Amino acid sequence: MAKHDIFNEIVVSQQQIVSSVKDIAWKVKKTYANSEKVLAVVMLMGAKWFADDLFRQIDDDEKFQVCYIRANSYQGGTESTGRVTISPDIKENLTGKEILIIDDIYDSGLTLKTVTELFKEKGPADVKTCVFLEKQIEHKEQINVDFVGLNVPDEFIVGYGLDYKQMYRELPFIASIKKDVIHSGELPCLEDVI
Ligand code: IMP
Ligand code: MG
Predict the structure, then answer these.
(1) pTM (2 d.p.)
(2) Which of 44, 57, 100, 121 is 20 to 30 A (C-alpha) from 179?
(3) Is the CB of residue 106 below 6 angstroms from any atom belonging to ligand 1?
(4) Cα 193 from Cα 2, distance rounded (Å)
(5) Strands 126-135 vs 147-152: parallel, antiparallel or unpaired
(6) Rounded distance between C-alpha atoms, residue 194 and residue 138, angstroms
């Protein structure tokens, strides 16, 4: 299957990704300039690509301690199931800690809201949120996101960590995927498309 059979259009180019990551890195650094330690919680899998680039850019391992949790509300499809599962459970005492929760995209807002609330219950000094992308929609759950990279249209998009059924995460750009690809059970391999 050729590239044009799968993607509608490139929504965010590789260049835009690089410059937006730099921009967020600068803002995050500035915000936490006086902090001693920040616990960055990255939501697997989607946010890993962004977080890797972000922390490489921030380049401050002394201050930013990075860990990963799994939060999933889609479970393989293109519509949110309305239920968020998280693993592992937060057992650690977070009293007094500064937390930065990082996700790939603010869509319905359900994931970020659930995860943020779970962390807030553990008594940290502060919880901030950071997403690489924000969908231009009326979010079901309104949340105040502290750091946002780019706005994207209300379409199902893949690439730079975002997947459709675990595919296309490795694309170096972000593209909207055609509806018939979403609905046909047959999916091309990554090597067919780039
Ligand atoms: P929420 O609806 O804001 O809870 O979004 C939760 C998660 O759904 C995000 O962290 C993404 O992993 C995934 N997601 C939302 N929109 C898209 C999309 O357009 N493509 C791929 N994954 C998406
Ligand atoms: Mg996700």
Answers:
(1) 0.89
(2) 44
(3) yes
(4) 6
(5) parallel
(6) 33
Query: What's 62's DSSP letter?
Result: T
Token representation of residue 107: 């869509």
Q: How far is the CA of 128 from the centre of ligand 2 (A)?
A: 17
**Which residue has the least CA distance to atom 16 on ligand 1?**
107
Residue 166 clears pLDDT 70, i.e. is over it: yes
- Residue that is written with structure tokens 């057992």 in the block: 91
Give me the amino acid identity at 121. Answer: E
Spans of all domains in the chain: 15-152
Q: Please answer whether residues 157 and 179 qualify as being in contact, where contact means their C-beta atoms are separated by less than 8 angstroms.
A: no
Q: What is the pLDDT of residues 35-67, one digit of tens each?
A: 999 999 999 999 999 999 999 999 999 999 999
Neighbours of 84 (CB within 10 A): 18
> According to the 3-state scheme, what is the secondary structure of 20-74?
HHHHHHHHHHHHCCCCCCEEEEEEECCHHHHHHHHHHHHCCCCCEEEEEEEEECC
Q: Whose CA is nearest to atom 6 of ligand 1?
A: 111
Q: Is 59 a catalytic residue?
A: no
Q: Euclidean distance between the first and final Cα of the chain, in Å?
A: 10
- For 15-152, CATH gives 3.40.50.2020
Please name the amino acid found at residue 51. A
Q: How far apart are CA 157 and CA 159, in angstroms?
A: 7
